[in-house]
Amino acid sequence: MNVSHEPTFCRICEPLCGMIATVEDGRLVALRPDKDHPVSAGFACQKGIAFSEVVNDPDRVTTPLRRTRVDGLRASGSSEDGFEPVSWDEAMADIASRVAAVHRDHGSGGIGWYFGNPGAFNYSYTIALQSMTFGFPRMHLFTAGSQDVNNRFVASQLLYGSPLALPVPDVLRTDLLVVMGANPVVSHGSVLTAPRIRDRMHDIVKRGGRVLVIDPRRTETAAQFEWLGIVPDGDAFLLLSLLQVMFSENLADRARLARHADGVDWLEQLARPFSPEATEAHTGIDPGTVRALARDLVRTERAAVYGRVGTSIGENGTLTTYLIDAVNLVAGNLDVPGGSMFGRLGIPGERWLTKAGGALLRGVYTRRRSRIGGFPAVLGSEPAAVMAKEITTPGRGQIKALFVGAGNPVLSVPNGDELERALESLDLMVGIDLYVNETLAHCDYVLPATSMYERDDFPLPFQTLQPTPLRQATEAVIAPVGQARAEWQIIDDLAGRLSRTTPGFALLAGVRKVLSLFGARLSPRMLADAVIRLSEGGDRFGLRRGLSFSKLTREHPHGAVLARYLRGGVLRDVVVYRGGRVRLRHDSIGAEVDKLSRRRVPDGYPMRLIGMREARSENSWLHNAPLLMRGGRAQHALVHADDAAAAGIDDGDLVRIASPHGEIELPATVTKDIVAGVVAVPHGWGHKGTAGWRVANSAGGANVNRLMSSAVDDVESLAGMARLTGVPVRISPSG
Ligand SMILES: Nc1nc2c(c(=O)[nH]1)N[C@H]1C(S)=C(S)[C@@H](COP(=O)(O)OP(=O)(O)OC[C@H]3O[C@@H](n4cnc5c(=O)[nH]c(N)nc54)[C@H](O)[C@@H]3O)O[C@H]1N2
Ligand SMILES: Nc1nc2c(c(=O)[nH]1)N[C@H]1C(S)=C(S)[C@@H](COP(=O)(O)OP(=O)(O)OC[C@H]3O[C@@H](n4cnc5c(=O)[nH]c(N)nc54)[C@H](O)[C@@H]3O)O[C@H]1N2
Ligand code: SF4
Ligand SMILES: [Mo]
C-alpha cells in the first residue's frame, strides 16, 4: 500500500488551519492538524478533521446528473422526480445550447449565477467566474455576501474609497478587544484570518487586557470573557452613543483626527442627539456602562472594536459597520498597532492599483442597479433576497437560466419557499456542488465539483486579513473523486462552447489564442502565481529570491510567515481618496441615521429572533458527516426562562415561532444565557434535498429563513443586505 502524509490546509472557514492529509493509494483516509504550521500550530476543529467523511461521502455527487421528470413537464417539481447519470459531454452540450438559446431570446440579462460561500475559498472558481461576467455583461450575479458581508464592502467604499480596504483587529497586540455581533470561539473568526483565535483572545486577558463581547446571547465567546447583553439591532444606537460621549467629553484627539479624516464635525453633529440616556431604551445598556466603555476605548493605548455577522444583517448593517470604524478612528485606534489595522499585499504600484480598482468598483456600485428594487451592485453582485423575484417578474432582464455553484440559497436566503417556487419556473437550472442540496434538487443538471482537497489552492481574498501575514498554497492532495471537475474547468468548457455562438466568449477565445502563440496559457493558476510573485515575499518573476506558487507548495508546504505583525501607519496607502484621508460625511449615512427614529415593529410580534452558529455545522452543508452529527444532534430554539414561563413552554417542548412572513416549530432549550425577549435559532437546517444527503435529511429541524422577509422594503438599501437578525417574532407552545 502506498501511504503519504501531505501538508495542506483546510478551507471550510477563515483561519485556513494547516492540515496533514493521509493518502492511501490515492484515497484521502484521514486529516489531522498540522503541528508544523507556523500559526495554527497543531490546531484544527472537529469540522476540519471530519472533512474526510465529506470527501468520501457515499451521498456525494460523482457524475453529472440529469433530472428525470415523471410527467415530462418542466414545472412538475414532483417529489417523484429524480436524477440519472449522464456523460460530461452530453450534459455540457445540452447546457451550452440551452444557455445560448436563452441568450439569443433574452440577452445576457436572462442568465443568473448564484455564487455560494465555499466559492470564496476557491480562487480558481472566483477567477473563472470573471469570464462569465465578461461574456455575459448583464448576467445577474448573486452571492452569499448579501447575507453576510456586503455591508462591510460598502462601508469601506464610503470611508476609504475602496470596498476592498478591510480593517482587521490586531488581536495579537490589543489590550482591549470589543467583539460586537461575532462569536469567534465557534466561528473561528470572520473577515479575520487568525488561526487559534480563542487562544489569542485568552492571551489578551493573560497580559492584563480585556475582551468584551456585546451580544444578545451569552455566547460561547461571551461565556469565556466579559458579556454585555444588547437588544438585537441596537448596535447603531450604542455606537452613536460611544461617539457622542467621545466628542462631548472631549476625549477625542481632534488634531490627530483632522490630520486623517474629513467630515469630523459632520460626524459630531450626527452623533449629538444620541446620548447614552437617549439610546438606553434601544440598547438595554445602562448609560454609565456606555460612558465607561467610551473612555476605555480612548484611554487604552491598544484597543479595537470588531464587528461581524450580528452587526451586518440587521436593519442597517452598512451604517453599523461604518460606525464601528468611526468609533475606532475617533478613539485613535485605526491603523495603529493593537487597534484596527489594514493588511496589504505589497505589490509594486499597489496604491495606484487600489485607486484604479476602487474607482472602478465605486462606478459599478453607483451605475448598476438591480431590476427589482433598484439596489446598487456590490462588487458587481445583486441582493440574493430578491433573486426569486428576478426569476418570476416578467420583462427584460428576467432570469430564465440560473447556475448555482457552491451555494444553497433555498436554506440560506430569506423566504426559501418563494425561491423554490421560482426555481421551478426556470427554462434551465444548473448546479455545481458536492451534493444535491435543497436548492439543487430543482436543477435540470447537477455537475459534480471537486472538494477542496482535489484541487490546488491559494486563498487569495484572505491575504490581507491576517494579523500575522502568511503565504500558503497547496497542490491537490488527491485526484478528483469519480468524475468530479473543478469549477474553473467547467466554466472554461462552457465558455469554449459558447464562443461558437456568443460574441463576448468568441472575443475571450481569441485573446487566449493570441496569448497561446506566445506560450502563455491564461488560467486562474497563472493569475494567482502572479499575485504571489509580485507581492511581499514574492520572487518578482526572478528579479529577487522569493516565492512563487510552486515554490510555496514545494519549499514551504506548511506556509511561510512574511512578518510577525501588520504594519501601522498605512492609511495613506489604503485610502484611495485624495491625500489618503478618510471620508466621514455621506448623505446616505445621514439618511440611515434618520431612519433609526422611524423604525417600526409590527403589532403582535413582541420578541426578536437572532441566529446562532454551531461548532459542528457550517451553514447548511456539514450535516451529512456522521462524525459531526453523532449524539443525535438536532436543531433547537433558545428561549429565555422568563419568556418560556410566560408562554407556558418547558425545556424540550415544541415551540412555534411565528413572524409576519411564516412560522416554524422546534424543540425549545430554555436558558438564562440570552437577553429576555430574544429567541435564537441556528440556520442551515430543515434538510430535504430529495435525491441528496441522507444523514442530513433524517436530522429534522426547520429552515429558519422561512421567517425572513424577501420584500424589497425589508432589504437594507445601501448594500442589499437581507434582514436576518432582530426579526420581530412571537412564540407559543406548539399544537
Ligand atoms: N462552526 C461554524 N463556524 C462558522 C460557520 C458556521 O456555520 N459554523 N459559518 C462561517 C461563516 S459563513 C461566517 S460568515 C462566520 C461568521 O462569524 P461570526 O460573525 O463570528 O459568527 P456568528 O455566529 O454569526 O456571530 C454573530 C453573533 O452576533 C450575535 N448577534 C445577533 N444579532 C445581533 C445584534 O443585533 N447585535 C449584536 N451585537 N450581536 C448580534 C449572535 O448572537 C452571534 O453570537 O462564521 C464562519 N464559521
Ligand atoms: N438566518 C440566517 N441565514 C443565514 C446566515 C445567518 O447567520 N442566519 N448566515 C449567512 C451566511 S454568513 C452565509 S455565508 C450563507 C451561506 O449560504 P450558501 O453559500 O448559500 O449556503 P451553504 O450552506 O454555505 O452551502 C454551500 C454549498 O456549497 C457546497 N460546496 C462545498 N464545497 C464546495 C466546493 O468546493 N465546490 C462546490 N461547487 N460546492 C461546494 C456544499 O455542498 C453546499 O451545498 O448563509 C447565510 N444565511
Ligand atoms: S477552524 Fe475552520 S479552517 Fe480550521 S479546521 Fe476548523 S473548519 Fe477548518
Ligand atoms: Mo458567511
UniProtKB/TrEMBL annotation:
Family under the similarity heading: Belongs to the prokaryotic molybdopterin-containing oxidoreductase family.
Record-linked PROSITE patterns: 4FE4S_MOW_BIS_MGD, MOLYBDOPTERIN_PROK_3
Domain 4Fe-4S Mo/W bis-MGD-type intervals: 3-59
Record InterPro entries: Asp_de-COase-like_dom_sf, MoPterin_dinucl-bd_dom, Mopterin_OxRdtase, Mopterin_OxRdtase_4Fe-4S_dom, Mopterin_OxRdtase_prok_CS, Prok_Mopterin_Oxidored
SMART domains on file: Molybdop_Fe4S4
Gene Ontology molecular-function annotations: iron-sulfur cluster binding; metal ion binding; molybdopterin cofactor binding; oxidoreductase activity
Record's keyword terms, sorted: Iron, Iron-sulfur, Metal-binding, Molybdenum, Oxidoreductase
Protein name: Anaerobic selenocysteine-containing dehydrogenase
CC cofactor: Mo-bis(molybdopterin guanine dinucleotide)
Signal sequence segment: none
